[in-house]
Amino acid sequence: MATELTAAQLRAYDGSDASKPIYVSIRGKVYDVTTGRGFYGPGGDYALFAGREASRALAKMSKDSADVSGDLSGLSDKELGVLADWETKFQAKYPVVASLK
């Protein structure tokens, strides 16, 4: 397993290939969320985040594809707090497998 993935490499782990794990990145840390396939796999409530850097969308509690990015500019303190809560949940539940270049 590579210790660093590019955004393009991360896209290969979006759940569309059942033989590959599903990854989601938050603040540049790539988590293996395969155990949450029902949420992050195709048809899941959070499938939009699979294979992507999802920090902004999680901070804004948004499922708008335009928000699925690592851009944290312009977020409020409250939104950054929401992101920190998500990050804590991911750290407790899913292993970090790489970092995002």
Task: Describe how the helices and strands are arranged.
Blueprint: E1 4-5, H1 7-10, E2 23-26, E3 29-32, H2 37-40, H3 55-60, H4 77-93, E4 96-100
Parallel strand pairs: 1-4
Antiparallel strand pairs: 2-3, 3-4
Describe the protein's architecture and organization:
InterPro entries: Cyt_B5-like_heme/steroid-bd, Cyt_B5-like_heme/steroid_sf, MAPR/NEUFC/NENF-like. Belongs to the cytochrome b5 family. MAPR subfamily. The structure is a single chain. The chain is α+β, with helices and mostly antiparallel strands and 101 residues long. It has one domain (4-99): Flavocytochrome B2, Chain A, domain 1 (Roll). The protein is built from four helices and four strands. The chain has helices at 7-10, 37-40, 55-60, 77-93; strands at residues 4-5, 23-26, 29-32, 96-100. Strands 1-4-3-2 form a four-stranded mixed β-sheet. A hairpin with a 2-residue loop joins strand 2 (23-26) and strand 3. The longest helix has 17 residues, at 77-93. The radius of gyration is 12 Å and the shape is globular.
